[in-house]
C-alpha cells in the first residue's frame, strides 16, 4: 500500500524515500519498454501495471503523459552525456579510444535509451535541449583532441558520431541480444579503423548539428 | 471497377493483365508501408484502403495474411539479391567499389525493403530462405575478390556486410529523408575506409551466417 506513505499535512520530505524512488525508477523503466513496443500512445494504466504500481502512484510522480515522456527522454540524454563525458576524460591521451568508449557505451546501454533518433518519443523540454547541446560539445572536445594529435580524420564531426551512435545502438530485430551486440561491435571496429587519417577519401558534406536538432524536438505550441 | 476484369468461364490469361499487375504492386507497396508503421497485425481492409483497391481484389491476389507477408519479404530479399549481384559484377575490377555499391544500394532502396533484420515481418517460405543463401554467396564472392586482390581486410565476412546493411538502411527517425540518407552515406564512407587492409586491428569473432539466419525465420508449425 504505497498510499500509506502520504502525509499531506506534514512538511515535504527532504528527498524521495527509498520506496518512492524505487517506484519512480520502475515506472520509468516500464514507460521506456512500453514506448518502444507500442509507441507513446500506450495507456498509462498499462505502464502502471508493467511497473507493478497502482495508477494513483503513477499520477503522483507524473501528472500527465507529457511529464512521463519528457523524463524518459531526459534520462536518455543524461546517460548519453555521462557516457560522452567519461569518454572525453581520456581524449587527451587516446582520442580514438575515447571515440570507441563513447560508441561502445551506446551499444552497451541500448536497452536504457529511448531517444528521438532511435525511434523514441520527442519532447520540447528545455533541459533535454540543453543536454543535447552538451553532448555535442563533449563529442566535439574528443574530436578536437584527435585532430590536433592527427590520429583522427579531420572531416569527422560530432553529428557523425551522434548519427553513428543512433545507427549502431538500435538492436537488430529477431537476433539474440548478444549476437546483435557482437555484430554491432564488429561494425564499430571497422568504422573506428576508418576514422584514422591515413588513406581516407573525402566524406560527402554533412548537415550541421543545428539542422539535425531542428527536427528532433516538437514545436512550441504556445 | 476491377471486378469487370473477371471472366470466370474463360481460360486463364497467360499473364496478369496490366491493371491486375498494377493492383498487385499497389497492394504490396501498401502492405510494406502498413507493416512498417503498425506491424503485421494491421487489418487487411486497411491495406486494401491504402492501396486504393477493394478487399475482394486483395483476397483474389493474396488469399490470406501469410501470403501477403511472404510476398513482401520475398520481394525485399529479391531486391537485396539483385543489388548484391549487380555489385558482384564489378568485384573483379574494384572489390571495394563493389562493397560500396551494395551498401549504398541498400541505403537508396530502404523504402522498398521490409525484412526481418530491419524490423520487417518473418516468414518460413523456402524461396525466401533460398534468396538469403544466394545473397550471402554473392557477398562472399565480392569479399573473396577483395581478399585475393589484398584491397579488403581479410577478417570481414558476408555476415558483417548483411549486419552493416541492416544497421545503415533503417532511416533515422524524425529527420528529413535526405538528411538521414546523407548521414548514413557519410557513416558508410568511414566504414569503407575501415575495410582497407592497412592498419586494421583484429575484429571480435563473429556469429556465422547459419547462426544468424536461424533466428530470422519462423519455426515450422507442422
Automatic annotation (TrEMBL), chains A, B:
It comes from the Bacteria. Transmembrane segments: none annotated. The keyword Hydrolase does not apply. Residues 21-80 form the HTH tetR-type domain. Keywords: DNA-binding, Transcription, Transcription regulation. GO terms for molecular function: DNA-binding transcription factor activity; transcription cis-regulatory region binding. Residues 43-62 bind DNA. Pfam families: TetR_C_43 (PF21597), TetR_N (PF00440). PANTHER family: HTH-TYPE TRANSCRIPTIONAL REGULATOR BETI, HTH-TYPE TRANSCRIPTIONAL REGULATOR RUTR. This is TetR family transcriptional regulator. It comes from Streptomyces capoamus.
Amino acid at each position: 500500500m504505497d498510499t500509506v506513505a502520504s502525509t499531506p499535512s506534514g512538511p515535504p520530505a527532504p528527498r524521495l524515500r527509498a520506496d518512492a524512488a524505487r517506484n519512480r525508477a520502475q515506472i520509468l523503466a516500464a514507460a521506456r519498454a512500453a514506448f518502444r513496443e507500442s509507441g507513446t500512445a500506450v495507456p498509462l494504466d498499462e505502464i502502471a501495471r508493467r511497473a507493478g504500481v497502482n495508477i494513483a502512484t503513477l499520477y503522483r510522480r507524473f501528472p500527465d503523459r507529457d511529464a512521463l515522456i519528457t523524463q524518459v527522454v531526459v534520462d536518455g540524454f543524461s546517460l548519453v552525456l555521462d557516457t560522452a563525458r567519461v569518454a572525453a576524460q581520456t581524449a587527451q591521451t587516446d582520442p580514438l579510444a575515447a571515440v570507441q568508449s563513447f560508441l561502445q557505451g551506446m551499444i552497451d546501454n541500448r536497452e536504457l535509451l529511448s531517444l528521438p533518433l532511435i525511434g523514441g518519443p520527442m519532447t520540447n523540454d528545455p533541459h533535454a535541449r540543453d543536454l543535447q547541446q552538451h553532448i555535442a560539445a563533449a563529442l566535439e572536445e574528443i574530436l578536437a583532441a584527435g585532430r590536433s594529435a592527427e590520429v583522427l580524420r579531420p572531416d569527422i564531426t560530432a553529428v557523425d558520431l551522434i548519427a553513428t551512435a543512433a545507427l549502431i545502438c538500435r538492436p537488430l530485430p529477431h537476433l539474440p541480444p548478444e549476437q546483435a551486440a557482437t555484430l554491432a561491435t564488429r561494425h564499430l571496429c571497422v568504422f573506428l579503423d576508418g576514422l584514422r587519417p591515413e588513406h581516407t577519401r573525402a566524406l560527402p558534406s554533412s548537415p550541421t548539428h543545428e539542422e539535425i536538432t531542428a527536427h528532433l524536438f516538437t514545436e512550441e505550441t504556445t
